[in-house]
Amino acid sequence: MLQCIQITNYAIISSLEVRFSKKLTIITGETGAGKSILMGALGLALGDRADLSQMGDKNKKLIVEAFFQVEPSGNISDIMQKLEIDFDDEIIVRREIAANGKSRSFVNDTPVTLTQLQELSSLLVDLHQQFDTLQLGKKDFQRTLLDARAGCLDLMKEFSSHYTQYNLVCRMIEQIKQDMLRAEQEKEYNLFLLNELEELNWKIGEAKNLEDELNVLSNADHIRTTLSKITHILKEGEQPILSQIKNIHTSIQALGNFHSDFISIADRMSSAYLELKDLSSDLDSMTEKIVVNEKRIDEINSRLSVFQRLLKKHGIISEILLLEKRDELSVKVAAFESAQEELVQREKEKKTHFDAAMQIATSVHEKRKKHAPMLESASIELLSRIGMPNARLKIAIDKEELNPSGIDQPSFLFDANKSGHFEPLHKVASGGELSRLMLVLKSLVAGSLDMPTLIFDEIDSGISGEAARQVGILLEELADSHQLISITHQPQIAARADHHLYVYKEEKNGNINTSIKLLTHQERINAIAKMLAGENPSKAALANAKEMMD
Q1: SS3 assignment, position 415
Q2: Is the pTM of this model over 0.85?
Q3: Is the pLDDT of residue 239 over 50?
């Protein structure tokens, strides 16, 4: 609900605060007094483009603030959370235009972009201005009106959930297919690279082991010769070392009879003898094992060559990285099969959401077809009441492929003169006709559709008498459940107000300013009488005005 608007330095409004009723607020005043200026200021607060010509004093800042009382739930809550703005039950929207033309927008003192302000404002106020094609020309809004009348709003929420998931899964499937195509193109090459690495079957530390073995095999003759010389010295020679140590051990052992220290020395000499004897046996064994094996040398050289080639091929420098590359290729090759499994699963999800969406859309389509003629008839009846007896509304519902609206896209067509020739609303309806048609349609769906504050700027253009009275009745009925604000020149409409604001000009300090005041009961009678009979209304006009209000 729009509680009030505060305007500073806008056109001929120096400073003004306007408060509104939660039901029907009517705004009247003389032509040129500033009623449309008031709507222009509100439009600026709601996100209209700024214009330096709107500034009264070019040296001062233009400020418009609108105060709204809201329920902290639903779409408004979602947008406020998206904007990361805290609120309880009040939203304050502010526009500032500096003297240099720079515009700034705020919501609860938090800076926002103009686009963000417009998105929020669309949920707060529905502003209907004459010569504006309004929301009514938009097919999505037309569909919402029909669905509200047909009781399909909850079904459409459920449909939208499945349709959104269906589209999401479709995009995922397309991405999987593209990934599979790329994987298929790379699969053979990756498989070839993987087979190379798996055939090599390299192990951590293998490079050092092979290089050590190759070093031994490449020097086998020299190693055997050296080992043979050593074992010969130890065991055979003219004076074998083992024999000499054994003799030394025997001699020292004999000295043990003279001193106990020689016994321990003899034991140590015995250990040395046994160690050298074992060492000699090991050297013999190694000498037998070390043989010239050209075939093995070729095998090692070949394996190391393949290893080095693959390191270079993959641009890496260590065997650890080579094994990681093998694992990476293994994952890539396996990913294709995994993608195929995922594709099958996603296709099942796609079918599930498609079938559910189609089932709901079919039900909605039937409800729309059933209720469209009822909405047409009811709107034609009300249009006749408010001065458009020849106007005809036709709702076209043609079956289509599955789309965000279901399996159809309702389209509102209009014939203003009972010609039998129907055209889209924005092509054939004038601003006043559109405003009255909007009033009619919203009156018919008011109980089913959650609507923001409705503002009608001169909805009564081109009508008077009974038609104007019927417009007033519709506004009054709609105001029972929604906040309405209407600028009017018709006394029949003004008489229906809960809250009657009068706009007038006055001179202050040599300047003309727009002011506004809330009329008392008697002041309302006088104002409506003037609307009926002119500046000096007769007693009959005053009585007529009082009767209208009663």
Answers
A1: strand
A2: no
A3: yes
Is 510 exposed, middle or buried (CB count within 10 Å of its CB: 0-12, 13-18, 19+)? Answer: exposed
Q: How confident is the model at residue 128 (pLDDT cuts 50, 70, 90)?
A: low
Per-chain mean pLDDT for the chain? 85
CB contact burial 87-122 (16+ within 10 A = b; e otherwise): beeebbbbbbbeeeeeeebbbbeeebeeebbebbbb
C-alpha distances in angstroms, 349 versus 161, 170, 346?
13, 9, 5
Q: Give the model confidence (pLDDT) of 314-328 as tens digits.
A: 888 888 888 888 888
Mean pLDDT, residues 130-138? 54
DSSP 450: -
> Right CATH number for 1-131+446-519 from 3.60.20.10, 3.40.50.300, 3.40.50.720, 3.40.50.10490?
3.40.50.300
Residue 513 banded pLDDT, cuts 50, 70, 90:
confident
pLDDT tens string 424-462 = 877 766 667 777 888 888 888 877 777 788 888 767 777
Cα dihedral 410, 416, 419, 424 sign? negative
Distance CA 380, CA 390 (A): 8
CA distance 19 to 427: 37
Integer angstrom CA distances of residue 428 from 133, 141, 391, 434? 10, 18, 11, 9
**Are 14 and 510 in contact, with CB atoms under 8 Å apart?**
no
User: Using the 8-state DSSP alphabet, how is residue 439 labeled?
Assistant: H
Rg (CA), the chain: 48
Running DSSP on this structure, what letter comes out for residue 418?
Answer: S
Nearest-angstrom CA–CA distance, 42 and 322 = 70
Nearest-angstrom CA–CA distance, 283 and 278: 9
User: Around Cβ 511, how many Cβ atoms within 10 Å?
Assistant: 11
The label of the residue with tokens 């929420």 reads 157
Residue 132 has a pLDDT of 45
Q: Which residue has the tokens 């006055």?
A: 506
Handedness of CA 43, 145, 142, 386 (dihedral sign): negative
Cβ neighbours, 10 Å, residue 297: 15
How far apart CA 369 and CA 358 sit, in angstroms, is: 16
CA–CA–CA angle 488, 489, 495 (5° rounding): 75
Q: Order the strands of the 2-10 sheet from edge to edge.
A: 13-19, 2-10, 62-69, 90-97, 103-107, 110-112
**How many other C-beta atoms lie within 10 A of the C-beta of residue 320?**
10
Q: What's the CA gap between 78 and 382, in Å, rounded?
A: 36
Q: Which of 121, 95, 116, 91 shows the shortest CA–CA distance to 106? A: 95
Residue bearing tokens 């321990």: 264
Per-domain boundaries in the chain: 1-131+446-519, 178-337
3-state secondary structure 480-492: CCCCEEEECCCHH
Structure tokens at 271: 């250990």
Question: What contacts 186, CB < 8 A, 6 or more positions away?
Answer: 332
Number of neighbouring beta carbons within 10 Å of residue 197: 18
